[in-house]
Each structure stands twice: as C-alpha cells, then as structure tokens.
Amino acid sequence: MINQDPVSARYAEALFGLIKPSGRLAEAAQELARVGALIRAHADLPQFLCNPGVEAEDKLGVLERLLGGGWSGDVRAFVRLVLSMGRPEYLVEMADAFQALVDEDAGLLRVTVRSAHPLSAAARERLTRQLERLERRRIEMAEATDPELIGGIQVELDHRVLDGSVKTKLAELRQRLKSVRVH
Amino acid sequence: MPSILQLDLQQILSQALSFLLLVWVLRRFAWRPLLGMLDARRAQIARDLDAASRQRQEMEQLKQLLGRRLEAIDEEARRKIQEAIREGRRIAAEIQEEARAQAQGILSKSKETIELEVAKAKVTLRDELTDMTVGAVERLLRGKLDAKTDQQLVASILDELGSSTQTGSDPVGS
Asked: Please, where in chain A does CATH 3.40.30 lie?
C-alpha cells in the first residue's frame, strides 16, 4: 500500500465501504481516476476548486461539464461531499487511495517497469509471472521507456524498487570504487 | 798737609762708644725678638716638614688604597665580564634550543601538511580515476548496448529474480 495522507485514506475507505456492496468498485475507481486525471491535467483547476468564494455546487458543475458526465451517482455524491467539506485539495490523493483499496481488494498489484529498450513480449510475460509469484498477487504492469537507464530494468511496486538497471549498477560501482581506501 | 793716616783719637773713641751704644741698644731691644722670630721660623719649618712627611705618608697610604681599590675594581669587572659571557652563552644556547624546537615544530607540521595533501591528492586521484573509468564504461555501454544485448541482460535479471523467488530471498531493494 502506498503511503497516504490520513485524510485521503479515511475518505477513500468510506467510499470503498459504500461502493463495495454494489460490486461496482472497478467502475467507481475508474470514474474517480478520471476526476484525478482531470485535476492533474488542468493547472488552474486546483486553485478554482479551493476557492472559498465559489459554491460547492458550482465547482461540481464545472467538474461535471469538463468530464462530460459519465460518472455514477455514488461517485458524484462523494465528490460533492469532498467539495462541501472543503477538502478539494485531497481529491487526487483520494482517487489514488481508492484505486489502491480496490486493487488490494481484487488481489491486484500495479507495477511500473522502466527499461532502456521496450520489453519483448516474452520478457514481459516472464516478469509478470515472477512478480506474481513473488508478491502472491495479480500483477498489472505499466511500462515506460527510459534511455537514461542504459540497459536492464527498474520495477516500481508499492513503495519498493527492484533495480536491475545498468545506470544503477554503474552508480554502485562508482560508489564502491570511491570507498576503496588509498594508502 | 795732613796725613791721611793721621788718627783722631777723639773721633775714634766717640765712634767706638757709639758702636757699643748701638750694640747695647740692639742687644737690649732687638736681639730677643729677632731670636724669637728665628725660633718661630725654625719651628714653622719643622712643622711644615712634619706636615709634608705626613702628607707623603698619607699619599703613600692613599696610593696603596687606590691601588687595592683599582685591583678590586678590575677583579669585579673581570668577574662581571665572565658572568656576562656565561649569561650570553646561556641565552645563546636557549635561543639556539628554542630555534631548534621551532624549526622541528615547523618541520613536523610541514610533514603532516604534506602527508595530508598527499592523502587528499590520492583520494582526488582515486575519485577522478573512478569517474573517468566508470564514465568511459558508461559511454561504451551507451554505444554498444543495443536492444538485443539489453534483452539478454533483462533475461539474466529475470533468471536471477526467478532463482531468488524460488529460494525465498528478497531481491527487492528500496
């Protein structure tokens, strides 16, 4: 579980408890993730949402128009509650925390794999299997290409990093050589 | 013509009487004061001679005293000169010793500084060599490590990960 702000965690757990009986956790997580992505994408939006001079209903209306609808009543009510409680600055973290709760409930672990060159299908499949065996959870993998790594892979899972990149190996080699005592 | 040798007895007698009268007057009124003056003069001369003799003796004594004083002064001067020489030698020795100690201190400090600088230079050299070597390896790998080689590298990492998951060791670093 990613380290979260207690406020965000508390709201996310409340929403999780509300949605779980309906069996719509994945959809709700997706809808809330869209809200989070929207706030991340618009630099002015956080400032607008945090403006105490604007009514919560008006803020909700703006979000609804930007999203083009497409969210369930539960998620809408949740966002409305957050806005009316004056906690809009936590919305992005709440979306992440809710996603983590949903993933945990589904036995799913999201990992990000960085590599200097795109992974082959075989390597991706093999890595997924090995991580599932290691973590005893279903793995959902996101990939990113980063030429700075030079070679190898870097796997981020929860707050841990499995680092097999050439860049890190060279940094470790440099550190080891620099710690050699000279006489 | 009267003879020049013609004697006038009366004149002779009167002159003799006058002479005797003169002698008597002199003897009566001038002889004693004259003798007194002569005695006084004699006594004065004797006193002067005594005084001169005493003064000569005193001069002799003074001369001897001065001689002894001069010898004592010379001795004291020699003693002080010797003391000054000894003190000067002692101070010179102290200055020499102090200078030697200072020189030793400077030398020791210089040696320490040099050793420190050498150690720092070695560390700098080591770090520069490390940066150069690792930098060269990095540049070489960036040029040579193509997608195919990288796939082989990833495969070896997966092998390692697989063996660690089987043995139960934790392959994950923070």
From this structure: 108-179
Handedness of CA A134, A135, A138, A141 (dihedral sign): negative
Which of the four pLDDT bands, split at 50, 70 and 90, describes residue B174?
A: very low
Got the DSSP string for B107-158? HHHHHHHHHHHHHHHHHHHHHHHHHHHHHHHHHHHHHH--HHHHHHHHHHHH
Mean pLDDT in consecutive groups of 10 residues from the start of chain A, 183 residues: 75 93 92 92 90 90 87 90 91 92 91 94 94 90 94 90 94 94 81
Is residue B34 predicted with pLDDT exceeding 80?
yes
Question: Which residues in chain A are closer than 8 Å to B138, comparing Cβ atoms?
Answer: 150, 170
Chain B residues within 8 A of A150 when measuring between CB atoms = 138, 141-142, 145
Q: A150–B142: do the CB atoms touch at under 8 Å? A: yes
- Residue B163 at interface with chain A, using a CB cutoff of 8 Å: no
Which helix (H) or strand (E) covers residue A108, if one does?
strand A108-115
Structure tokens at B46: 């004797």
Looking at the structure, give the CATH architecture of the domain made up of residues A6-104.
Orthogonal Bundle (1.10)
Say yes or no for a CB contact (<8 Å) between B172 and A161.
yes
pTM score, whole prediction: 0.59
Host H or E run for residue A142: strand A138-145
Do the Cβ atoms of B162 and A130 come within 8 Å?
yes
Residue B3 has pLDDT above 80, yes or no: no
Correct CATH for A108-179 of 1.10.8, 3.30.519, 3.90.1520, 3.40.30: 3.40.30
Q: Which chain A positions have a beta carbon within 8 Å of B147's beta carbon?
A: 117-118
**Nearest residue on chain B to A114, alpha-carbon basis:** B154
